[in-house]
User: Fold this.
Amino acid sequence: MTQQEEKIPFHRHFGLRLLQVLLVVLCLVLVKRCVDIYHENKTSDEQTKIEYFEKGFAGGLNKSMGLSEDPEPRFKNYALKKAYRDGYRQGWDKGREKEKQP
Assistant:
């Protein structure tokens, strides 16, 4: 058998190039999102984060006690969303602890 270079079919060559382009675009979108989240976290002041944490804490506490709760606000800033959810979780846990105590 002689060694000959096999010609790569067009559809395989095209598919590999398309995959490379999609991976590069996906990586760029992911890096951009990570940079945006980092930037939002750095530009958000601590007082606003504390305010959203307290709102989340109150919402979680009310929900765990069966009281009416306000719907979760829509967030564009990931840092505020994280503060709200952390507060919500702690409020939920605190309310569940109060329920268990006689």
Observations:
- Residues 10-43 form the longest helix (34 residues).
- The chain has a mean pLDDT of 84.
